[in-house]
Write a structure and sequence with these properties.
It is built from one helix and two strands; from the N terminus they run H-E-E. The termini are far apart. The structure holds iron/sulfur cluster. Iron/sulfur cluster binds next to loops.
Length: 72
């Protein structure tokens, strides 16, 4: 069975962040690259895992805003 690139407990926030780019090495190890690091030196290219707090975290698929209804 193929190993999932996302192991939420071991990875932390990066597991569900839209800025992560999982990389598998030639030896089969997984690394989690932060794509924010390309533009912002505050972010490490390879964060130390698990990441528990991050100012750059963004949900990849935020829930759409709830429909508003005007009172009649
Ligand atoms: S922005 Fe933060 S949570 Fe997202 S991939 Fe980079 S280090 Fe991980």
């Amino acid at each position: 069975m193929e190993e999932s690139p996302y192991q939420p407990d071991a990875i932390g926030l990066c597991a569900s962040c839209q800025h992560v780019y999982p990389v598998r090495s030639d030896r089969g190890s997984m690394f989690y690259q932060c794509r924010r690091a390309a533009d912002d030196p505050d972010f490490p290219r390879y964060p130390i895992l698990p990441v528990r707090q991050c100012k750059g975290y963004e949900d990849p698929d935020p829930a759409p805003p709830r429909a508003r209804t005007e009172p009649s």
